[in-house]
Each structure stands twice: as structure tokens, then as C-alpha cells.
Amino acid sequence: RRYKFSQDEFEAMLAAQDERCAICRTGEWGGRADKPDVDHDHVTGQVRGLLCTNCNNGLGRFRDDPALLRAAADYLERAAAVATTAAQ
Questions:
Q1: Which of 9, 36, 42, 43 is most deeply buried (CB count within 10 A of its CB)?
Q2: Element (H, E) at 33
Q3: What phi-psi label fits residue 34: left (phi over 0), alpha (psi between -120 and 50 degrees) or beta?
Q4: Which tens digits make up the pLDDT trace of 12-62?
Q5: Least confident of 3-7, 18-22, 35-39, 81-85
Q6: How far is CA 83 from CA 2, 50, 74, in A?
Q7: What is the pTM of this model?
Q8: 20: exposed, middle or buried (C-beta count within 10 Å: 0-12, 13-18, 19+)?
Q9: What sign does the dihedral 57-58-59-61 (CA atoms) show?
Q10: ∠ at Cα 68 (66, 25), nearest 5°?
Q11: Do 10 and 38 meet the contact criterion of CB atoms below 8 Å apart?
């Protein structure tokens, strides 16, 4: 209701996502109600998809900024490369 998103639209989106998080593909939603979080664009209010609580919180912590998310992924990959080199 908050996003002017009907129950039918919600259920259709859930089915289209195979009842899994649009990012990590888990079927365990987390949160208090163990239901999907409705992800939305904070500028337009447009619904983007259904996410587990962890993925939804992660996007929010990175302020929905793709550049920050890419920087985080790069950081993790650099750290993994260093760990792999150190292990050899």
C-alpha cells in the first residue's frame, strides 16, 4: 500500500522472481515477519523488486549508490586476491 503496489502486483512479482530475493536468490526473507521487503527507488518511489531483509538493508547502507557498491565489490576482490597470494 505504501508504494501504491497492489497485492496482485506483489504476488506477480514474487512469482516472477521464483519466490526468491532478486539479488542473492535466497528464499529466506528474514526480518520480523519473514516476508519479502519491497525495494523501491527513494527518489521516484517506483518499486524495483522484492528483496530479503539483508539485501534490502545492504542497498540502504550503500545509499543505493552503484559506485559505492562497485567499490565495495572491488575491495572484496582485492582482499581475496591478497589472501590467495599469501596462502600460496
A1: 36
A2: none
A3: left
A4: 999 999 999 999 999 999 988 899 999 999 888 899 999 999 999 999 999
A5: 81-85
A6: 45, 34, 14
A7: 0.85
A8: middle
A9: positive
A10: 60
A11: yes
